[in-house]
Amino acid sequence: MFDRYEAGERAVLVHINFTQEGEWEDLSECEMLVSSAGVTTLQVITGSRQAPHPKYYVGEGKAQEIAQAVMQTEAEVVIFNHALSPAQERNLEQLCQCRVIDRTGLILDIFAQRARTHEGKLQVELAQLRHLSTRLVRGWTHLERQKGGIGLRGPGETQLETDRRLLRERIKAILRRLEKVAKQREQGRRARNRAEVPTISLVGYTNAGKSTLFNRITEAGVYAADQLFATLDPTLRRIQLEDVGNAILADTVGFIRHLPHDLVAAFKATLQETQEADILLHVVDASDERFRDNIRAVDDVLAEIEADEVPVLLVMNKIDNMESQQPRIERDDEGIPRIVWVSAMEGLGIELLFQALTERLSGKIVQYQLCIPPEHQGRMRSFFFKNRSILQESYDQQGNLLISIRMQQADWSRLEKREHAVLSDFIVT
C-alpha cells in the first residue's frame, strides 16, 4: 500500500533536548524501548532546540548530520524519540534515504510484537491503522494516480482514495469485533459484581515490576522480563484475602510518558478493568531516581481513561535494589494504609501487602457464636465453609453444631436475607 523504505533492525537514534517542558523525553527510556523492539542502536545523535522545526523537526544542519550518520553506519532506520508529523517523517525519509520512525511508531511496533491474544492483536492493529491513516493524508505521489486497466479506466477513484476507503472499512470491522469483546468483558464484570467479588487492578509505569508482583501473589506464571511492555494482554486471577474472601487480581499493560492517544483509545476494553476496579495497586519502581515523574505520568493516563477516582494503594517495589529500605506499611493520619514497601522479586513485604489490601477492602467485620440444630447444619455450614469464615466448631450432646464465625457484615446480611426465619434463633448471646 505504501511506497516507503523498508525498515531494518539497525538504527540511528535521535534525541533532542527541548527547553519547553512539554516536549521533554528521556533518552535512557528511549534506548530501552529500542532494545525492547529488538533493534540495535548504531549511533545516538543528540541536540538542543527551543522548539521543533516544521520541516525536519530538527534544524537543517542536524538533519544533514543524521543523513551523514545513516550513510556512514549503513543504518536501515532512523528512530526519533519524539512524535513526528507525517510531513516531517516524509521529508526526513527523502533526505536520509531510509525509513524514519517516531516514538509512537516505535511503541506501536513493540505492542505488535507482544500481542498474544486475539483481542490484543485487534487492539494493536486498530492503533496502527489509526496512526497510519494520518500518514495517508497528502501521501506519496504514486497514491494520487487513478487506477488503470480494463474496467477501471475513466473517472474512477484514485489509489489514495481507495486506500483511505479500505482503511476506514478495516477500522470499522475491528471496532465491531472489539465491541463484542467489550460486551463479553462487561458480562464477566457484572457476574463478579453480582457475586460481590472485589477487583484489584495492577497499574504502573512500564517495567515497574507489575507482572513479577502478579506472579508472586498468584503463582500465575505470567511472562515477566526486565524490558518495557513485557505485558500487553490483561490477565485475571482469583486470590484469597482474609476477612474479604475471593478477589480478582488483574494485571494490565504498563503506562509510559506521552502514551500515544491511539493506543489509549484502542485499549479501552482492556483498560476498562482499571476503571471498574475496587482498588488500584499502583506499582512503582522505588529504585528508579525518576520514580516521582513516573508516578505523575501514570496519574495522567489514569485521568485520561477516567480512572482517577478509583482508590489507590501505592506499592513501592524493588527495595532489594536499595540499601536503606525495609518492608513496611505507611499509613495516613486516620490509620489507613497508603503505601507498602516490597520486593516482588525477593518476596519481601508480600504479607504486608495482603494485610494492607485486607484493611482497605474489608468492610465492617462481625463475629458470632452460633448453635445450629441438625436439620439446618448442612446448608449453613456449607455457606460458612465456602466463605472461609469458620473459626472454631464442635458438637454438643444433642447433636447441635456449636460454631464460631467471623465474616464481613455484607456477607452476614446476605445470609440473613436468605435465612431470616431461623438465623436469629441460632445466635448464642
UniProtKB/TrEMBL annotation:
Hflx-type G domain: from which residue to which, for each copy?
198-365
Assigned keywords, A-Z:
Cytoplasm, GTP-binding, Magnesium, Metal-binding, Nucleotide-binding
Q: Tell me the cofactors it needs.
A: Mg(2+)
The cellular location(s) given in this protein's UniProt record come to: Cytoplasm
Q: Which GO terms describe its molecular function?
A: GTP binding; GTPase activity; guanosine tetraphosphate binding; metal ion binding; ribosome binding
Name one cellular component (GO) term.
cytoplasm
Please describe what this protein does: GTPase that associates with the 50S ribosomal subunit and may have a role during protein synthesis or ribosome biogenesis.
Q: How does it assemble?
A: Monomer. Associates with the 50S ribosomal subunit.
Name of the protein in question = GTPase HflX
